[in-house]
Amino acid sequence: MGPTQGKELSPQMRERVLKLFARFDVDGSKSIEKSETIKYWKSNFAKLNTEELFKSVDTDNSGTISEEEWLNFWTSVLRSGHTEEDIADELESIESGSSWVKFENLENKKG
């Protein structure tokens, strides 16, 4: 096993990732619907951001993103060689309304 394969998010980063999840999950259902992400991004390329987010994170293609899928996505970002600092920067960017960034070479991406 390589040095990044077994990596898990630190408790602090896990909490930070879930905090952003909660900002998207405005109805508190523990899942993110496309309508919620479109509202979140408003007119800032909302549909495009939503499509990219769901392509990256909705691994079971259910049309919603569960907390587990959300955590798995950010764990795979960490395992693909990004640091928690990279993730924190990205979370901060999303929190300020910036576009969704597509991470390349993630291990759990759909075929």
Automatic annotation (TrEMBL):
All residue ranges annotated as the EF-hand domain in the record: 45-80
CDD domains reported for this sequence: EFh
InterPro entries reported for this sequence: EF_Hand_1_Ca_BS, EF_hand_dom
Domain of life: Eukaryota
Signal peptide: none
One MF term in the entry's GO annotations: calcium ion binding
UniProt-listed SMART domains: EFh
Protein name (Swiss-Prot/TrEMBL): EF-hand domain-containing protein
